[in-house]
Amino acid sequence: MPTGSPTRLRVVIPELPDGVTAGQWWPVKSDVDWITAPYTDNKPDPDVLIEADVFVGTDFSREMGEAAKSLKAILIAAAGFDRIDPQAVPPGVVVANAYHHEAPIAEWVMTVAVALDHELFASERTFRGGSWTQWPQRHGSYRELYGRTFGIIGFGAIGRRVARLASAYDMNVIAVGRRPDLAEVAAALNVNYGTGTGAMENILSEADFVLVSTPLVPETRGLMGEHEISLMRPDAYLINPARGHIVDEQALYNALKSRSIAGAAIDTWYDYPVSSTDAPRPSKYPFWELENVIMTPHHSGATEGTRSRRAATVASNIDRLANGEPLVNVIAELSTI
Questions:
Q1: CATH superfamily of 9-100+304-322
Q2: Could you tell me the pTM of the whole model?
């Protein structure tokens, strides 16, 4: 139970856009001492954390943990927590994340599903260049989402939101997850839901579209390997807005290059920039040379709505900590309290 006056917390945050104050970006109600620092590769200089009570960020290293002598909370303004080193979290620290990205990611998923199925990019590009090769009288008929099967691997907030949208397209939706207790939720959404290897293999072999929407944890790293991808139909598409390393990099590239699957839409990758100016290729394999891939730079959930909703959740957790109240969205496997 909260007692006495709220604690004034020292909170480390990344640099803000020009003209925006910390209180505007992170709408706390309690008094806060903001410590604004440049983040390189999503991390500040460890010395910034020496007197900090709260760190707001997506990455936490052992060097940061060793410096953070007074830390009480790590607040992730995102859903993924795979870049928090569990061994780095100091004793007595609570770790919590924020979601709120399922609506825009689901919109992106259905957008790329339509684009892949209707060959929209090829049609627009060639027609703009003066070619009629994509004209149905020369290309042939295109496919449609209506009546097709949408498979979902990972039935969390994103998977459930996509299920609702896919159902609105009159698609058959099948899903697999790790939680048997979601069966009733799935049934209410008219989703054929299962758990375990058999359910996943059924999705891979039956679905026209396979969505990867599970978090990256040790159990899901490499979940989609050469064997799993080989189970997909040659006319099926893989859609990955989750994490790159859930899908084996080489196996996916080989399947797309050989067209053993029809194509893919990829939003999450294997290599990322570490500074504000570098521009690495997102993979050691040249996906960008393939015509059956839609590539985007991890932007599917990065909307103004997502940012503001996550900021509100982080701010609420700062207020809860200041008032001695339990935090929301606590990640038990990372917290050390």
A1: NAD(P)-binding Rossmann-like Domain (3.40.50.720)
A2: 0.91
